[in-house]
C-alpha cells in the first residue's frame, strides 16, 4: 500500500487544501491529512475542531483519513509506514522553504517529499489571509468549503 501524508495546520481548511487532498487521493492508496500540533501557536480553531472540519470536507474521499501529530513529521511517517509527504506549493517562496524541509526530511529518514503546484485559482490562498479578510468583513465564501465558511463566521462572531 502506498501511503502519503499531507501535513499542515489547517486553521481553517481552505479550497486550496481540499484541491491538494483530492489530487493526492488519486495518486496514493491512502492519504493522511495530518494536523500538525504546534504548542507555541494558538489557532482560531482547536486541533479537534480542525480535525472534525477536515473529516467532514474529505468524507467523499474514501482513501483519505485525518490524524494529528505533535513532533517531527518524519517520526509520524516512520510510525505510520508513510512513504511520501505531499506539499502544495503556491509560489516560489513556498518552494524555497519546502525544499529545505524536504531535504532535511530525506536526510533524516529517507522519506520523499512530492511538491504539488496549486491550481491557479488557489495560488494566492492561505488560511491566514482568509481569516484576516473574514475578520474585517470580507467575503471569503468562495475560498472555503461551505461548512468551513459557516463555522469560520460563527467563530469570528463568538470572538467579537
From TrEMBL:
Q: NCBIfam families given for it?
A: coaD_prev_kdtB (TIGR01510), cyt_tran_rel (TIGR00125)
Gene name for this UniProt entry:
coaD
- Please tell me where ATP binds in this chain: 9-10, 17, 88-90, 98, 122-128
Q: Which cofactor does it need?
A: Mg(2+)
Instruction: Cite the GO molecular-function annotations of the record.
Output: pantetheine-phosphate adenylyltransferase activity
User: What name does this protein carry?
Assistant: Phosphopantetheine adenylyltransferase
Complex formation: Homohexamer.
The keyword ATP-binding is annotated on this UniProt entry: yes
Chief location category: cytoplasm
Enzyme Commission no: 2.7.7.3
